[in-house]
## 1
Amino acid sequence: MKFLRRYFGNPLLGVVDVREVRTIRGWARHARSAAPVTVDFFVDGKLAGSTRADRYRADLVSEVPHGRCAFEYTIPAESFDATEQTVEVRIRGAATPLANGRFAVRIDPPQHYEAMLRDILRDGLWALAGAVTNASLLLTGWYIAPSGRADHRITINDRPVALRPKHGAEDFKSPLPPEFKLHAFEGDTALDPREHELRISFGAGQPFHPLRDYHYPLFEAAMPEPQGRVRVAGHDSAFLFNLEGYSIARKLDALAQRYAGRPLAALGPVLDWGCGGGRTSRFLARNGVVLSGVDIDADNVRWCAQHIRGSFTTIRPEPPTAYADDFFGAIAGISVFTHLSQEYEALWLAELARIARPGALLFLSVLGRVAAARENLLEQLMSDGDGFVDAGRNPGIDAVTHGSAYYRNILHRPDYVARAWGKYFEIVSIEEGIVGNYQDLVVARKRGSSRAIRSR
């Protein structure tokens, strides 16, 4: 019967299984022919382009023994006019589209994204890596200076550091507007034994965005094992683990001072939601914070409990936690909502609202416009209907989630945060690209009297 249905039914088969803005992937074939078919792409009924479905995909061997019936095509940008338009994907000669092959999109012209890049880069952008060896600091990285700026120098604790040009930097993937240029660099400097921390700024006379400065601790800090660091940060670099964690801790203090008029430690009990291996908790605890930390990674939580002053607890991927209502004066969640589906996001927003005091500040990172620009995903982020973009499963903590689909790669548009998160909190500010000069930091406040933020 299966043979008869295939033979006498519609012989044109196929599916659109991935859509990334203008790029469409899927498979298509003719049930009674081994020859590859041509797939046509229409925008509002007008042919925008075609491609042959002759790419190999291992999962398609069940469809055809050679597995060569996949396709991928990027519809030209000039086919779109910034209004909502209908795309259809059809095998040539077919009267109907492929499965999932008819959908509505709204895509802005290329100059829209170029203007957006100019806005993102108005204060410059840079990224840093390095190493501490003996009594010296080696720095490597890249920078994009603001348009018209000629002061391209790093300062460490206000002392200029000579930079040497370096070949290659592929961490910024979007095409740059012509007035901007990416520069890779390296440099080194001797360390002063009298200093206990470094503030690393770009632009000596007129610094870039001050919340994109880096901070590095020169004092001893406990360090988790490499595998624990990888599950938190995606790398095992001890230098970056300290650089990222200490920078975040310093910025949380600065933002608490800006929006509550006092340092983080004075806001009351603080929750590091998603504490991982203590990347940030190690430094929060040193600042006198009454600290609690939670994570789904039991091994990392165990390490934190053994090495950091505070209370650390393993939690399930879904709420609730064991904390009482209105308990925390501040909550930090770094690189958590960057990985949760909309369903889990809503559950955790409600739970954080339950355990935060009225007036409490929440510092929650997301992948926004800066991250999208660095990954050449601006078009995808801005074209998505509601501003929540699920870019697929992230395998980074498979050892914890056992390879489930729980851990995702998620991007958030600012208007989505204001609309969806605003149901739970007052959105005080979205500080773009200040976490690792990659993630945005959403500063939110639980509605209620600010007098409720107090030490216990």
## 2
Amino acid sequence: MIRFLALGVPTVSRIMAVALVVAAIGIAFFGVGNYPSDDDRAIVALMLAVFALVALGIGFATPAIIRRLLP
């Protein structure tokens, strides 16, 4: 189970990061969604980009942490 976690988390985090970046680009440049102002649209796109970076960080750190914890 732990080895599956170490292998699956990076893959899922990369897929999630790509989806978040695509959503951020869609919101920022193509006007997807119903936002009252451009400032709100920019903030939402920025938050999605930050969440993508967090997802990549978790995906990068999980195998190293698992390697350290396994005997």
## 3
Amino acid sequence: MKRLVLAVLAIVFVAVVYLPAQAGAQFLIPGAESALSVSFSPQYPAPDSNVTLTLQSSLYDLDSSSVTWTVNGKEATSGDAATPVNVKTGPLGSKTDVRADITGPNGSASATATIIPSSVDLLWESDSYVPPFYSGRALPSAGSRVRLVALTHFVRPGGGEIPADQIVFTWTKDSEVLGDSSGRGKSSITVDGPTLFGTETIVVEAASLDGSIAGQALIRIPDTEPKLTLYENHPLFGVLYHQALGATTFVPKNEMSFTAVPYFASAVSSGDVGLQYEWRVNQSPITTSPTHGNEITVNAASSTGLMALINLSLTHVSNYFLSAAGSWSVTFNKSGGPAGGDVFHQ
């Protein structure tokens, strides 16, 4: 009886020990199905652009393997699996399906990827001061704020464009994710401008809700020093913004009113109460109106003579980083001249 029991136990032991070893060759290595992948550069391909495809694997020896690349169902090229290849994307709304089949000493495997091109435009401007009808961008100076708007161009293959409220935006400033400003539909943001002499980097990443389409935009915004520009303040036409005075200027009159414009200063207007203007004409300090500190009138006949050296410095009562200066040499007409005339064709 003991011998019968021992014989049965021996058979069971052999089955337990050896059967898995015999059947093990029929199972795949865990994770082998995902051990081969396709990466592409740039990470967010644009429409009608070249994309570099590279195989990556932690299991297969790509240096000793060959690959066949198939693009949209057609064989495109073949060669070494470790060698990157290039494909070209189509327009917005297109889809490029890529498949890589490799064969090597570790066996065969395949990987697929789908490329849907996208585009993200990043618009921005500062709240710094620029005069009316200025056609350029308001640039940030120390103390100003910057508003940015991301315009996404996400088009589904065979479908329409995805609206901004169906897109998730992630904003980053100088490598710091702005969590409160990121999220679904948050396509705009307002941040503090760059510090004095500094540059800030803003990145926005956008992705559709299902993650099938994504894009990115990056902008580097440098600090800009405010610039003082001098204009004639005409008694009839007002400030002649179309014609700034140069460093050396001749005027056909013996008296003229001037207005200084502080481009890119952190202010709501050129007459902002926080701005402090200090004028000197031929080294003599000039007192100005408390409400129009950026305006002066020079009378060459009664005070300065035919030559007036105008110096102006600008500071701010609370923004200690705001500073600008300008200098202009103005020569007046000895015989005076008409106060009016065609000021737009001088």
